[in-house]
Q: What sequence folds into this?
């Protein structure tokens, strides 16, 4: 047989990469993205005549770690029915042995691209609040995302925000059925830790050696997650990621090429959310969201103790219209009095 | 000596069986021989090329050393020390080749004692042809930093060649010779101008038939390559890791 050229090897690789959709209701359209576990393709659901996103593993087999994680991700998504979380439609194994699931095909832009077109800080904060709502919902259902970052947030054509890629999600408590928690080797250990409060130092060190797997994205991953302390992770780990995300959202350049300047309150919110010590962070996503909402409403935020001047400045900003109206009224009264005196 | 067919054909390790490493450590002589044949088929060519380039040995010496290496692998039970949790099999084998070459004189004596225990027909002439002839082109000698990469590339080339050969046999056996020819012309040849339309016109078939035939061939190729790979991996984790490396999934 003639030896294979380098080009032939590349062609073989490219050809072998395509999922075999024979026997399924889907028709392959195009490759959309590649993630840590596999590839996402656009496909057509021929029965329902709609476009879906098909996430498929690279490697065949249903008993490997990746296959278990992909199946688990699909099941977790299926239980997180929220407008801010991409809905899953179907799950299965292809003829070539690869595990797949299909989900809503999200048309839109990734947050890191979209944010460049958002001019005002207020609009950016409202966008962030929608991310918080989805994450808070997941936390309420006992699921941590563990990989929140701009690349995993999509913004649709109507401004809808979707939190994507739940492949690293961690199941926290009994909201999720036992079978799926069993698929997460960390679940039982985590629950034990949660019930007894924060983990002791000894638990932490055994976490690193026994179960510590560092998964996540540097810069967005909490320090405890980066240290591989998987047993002690809780909502505050996602809050760290949200804080990093908020800072990203607020500091990205506007269409005019200017990066907005963070005022002290917003800086304080970001700093509190991304505190090195998790006890110093917000205790819940709702709390973080409330602080951002208070800022939007011109109220004092919990993360920052204001000086008298800052209070006055905020008071002025919040009631600027009425203050100016009253001032205008007073000026008019003075002018009127002066005119009448003459 | 076992013929080529038995090595490439049905005498393969079942998918559920982990692994060729366990088989090589088995007390059953037949199991061990079969395992070594499987390893030899997958690795002899990268080992040979590595010896030629890394150790700059003439073709004759490199042939003896390659055969000697696989003999040692059996005689000295080198695979007993391999731990899939610590390294990849191919990295381990490359390190073993280096150690073997360092102790080359002793190995040569052992080779004379043990003789050629491989049941695999090693096409050294073909490997030489791939290296670009009997005289070495200095430009082709990889730098020490890229030797691991070179070994991996040659190993992948060898694996794909085996999978293509498997596919050809599978097509012959299932009267799908035309499918293989289409696959050969589109995926294996270096003709940049080839297209589905051209192939359809050449074979007098519809473009959709070309599409379907190529999809089938690629699927079978992939299956075959992964099956071959599974045979020579020490664990499920290693298989997953190697599959990602072989198909370039890590790089994308």
A:
């Amino acid at each position: 047989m003639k030896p294979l050229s380098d080009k032939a090897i590349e062609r073989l690789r490219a050809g072998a990469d395509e999922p075999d959709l024979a026997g399924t209701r889907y028709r392959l359209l195009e490759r959309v993205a590649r993630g840590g576990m596999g590839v996402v393709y656009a496909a057509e659901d021929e029965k329902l005549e709609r476009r879906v996103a098909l996430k498929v593993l690279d490697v065949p087999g249903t008993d490997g770690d990746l296959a278990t994680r992909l199946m688990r991700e699909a099941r977790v998504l299926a239980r997180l029915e929220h407008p801010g979380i991409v809905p899953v439609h179907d799950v299965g194994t292809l003829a070539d042995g690869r595990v797949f699931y299909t989900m809503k095909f999200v048309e839109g832009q990734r947050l890191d691209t979209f944010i460049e077109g958002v001019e005002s800080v207020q609009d950016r904060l409202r966008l962030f609040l929608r991310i918080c709502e989805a994450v808070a919902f997941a936390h309420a259902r006992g699921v941590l995302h563990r990989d929140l970052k701009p690349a995993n947030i999509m913004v649709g054509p109507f401004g809808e925000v979707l939190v994507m890629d739940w492949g690293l999600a961690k199941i926290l408590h009994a909201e999720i059925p036992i079978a799926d928690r069993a698929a997460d080797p960390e679940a039982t250990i985590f629950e034990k830790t949660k019930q007894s409060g924060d983990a002791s130092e000894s638990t932490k060190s055994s976490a690193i050696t026994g179960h510590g797997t560092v998964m996540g994205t540097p810069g967005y991953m909490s320090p405890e997650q980066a240290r591989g302390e998987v047993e002690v992770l809780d909502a505050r780990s996602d809050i760290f990621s949200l804080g990093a995300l908020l800072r990203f959202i607020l500091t990205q350049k506007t269409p005019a090429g200017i990066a907005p300047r963070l005022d002290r309150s917003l800086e304080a919110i970001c700093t509190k959310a991304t505190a090195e010590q998790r006890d110093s962070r917000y205790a819940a996503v709702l709390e973080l969201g409330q602080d951002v909402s208070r800022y939007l409403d011109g109220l004092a935020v919990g993360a920052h103790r204001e000086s008298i001047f800052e209070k006055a400045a905020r008071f002025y900003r919040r009631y600027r219209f009425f203050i100016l109206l009253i001032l205008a009224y007073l000026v008019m009264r003075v002018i009127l009095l002066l005119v009448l005196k003459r | 000596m076992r013929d080529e067919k038995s090595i490439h054909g049905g005498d393969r390790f079942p998918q559920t069986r982990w692994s060729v490493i366990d088989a090589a450590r088995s007390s059953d002589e037949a199991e061990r021989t079969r395992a070594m044949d499987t390893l030899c088929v997958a690795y002899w060519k990268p080992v040979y090329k590595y010896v030629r380039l890394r150790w700059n040995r003439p073709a004759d010496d490199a042939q003896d050393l390659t055969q000697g290496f696989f003999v040692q692998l059996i005689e000295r039970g080198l695979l007993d020390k391999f731990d899939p949790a610590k390294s990849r099999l191919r990295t381990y084998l490359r390190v073993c080749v280096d150690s073997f070459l360092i102790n080359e004189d002793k190995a040569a004596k052992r080779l004379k004692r043990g003789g050629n225990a491989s049941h695999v027909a090693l096409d050294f002439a073909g490997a030489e042809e791939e290296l670009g002839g009997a005289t070495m082109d200095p430009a082709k000698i990889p730098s020490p930093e890229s030797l691991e990469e070179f070994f991996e590339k040659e190993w992948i080339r060898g694996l794909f060649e085996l999978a293509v050969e498997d596919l050809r046999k599978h097509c012959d056996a299932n009267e799908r010779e035309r499918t293989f020819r289409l696959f050969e012309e589109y995926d294996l040849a270096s003709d940049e101008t080839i297209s589905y339309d051209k192939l359809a016109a050449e074979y007098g078939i519809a473009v959709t038939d070309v599409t379907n035939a190529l999809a089938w061939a690629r699927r079978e190729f992939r299956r075959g390559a992964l099956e071959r790979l599974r045979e020579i991996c020490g664990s499920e984790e290693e298989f997953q890791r190697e599959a990602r490396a072989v198909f370039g999934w890590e790089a994308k």
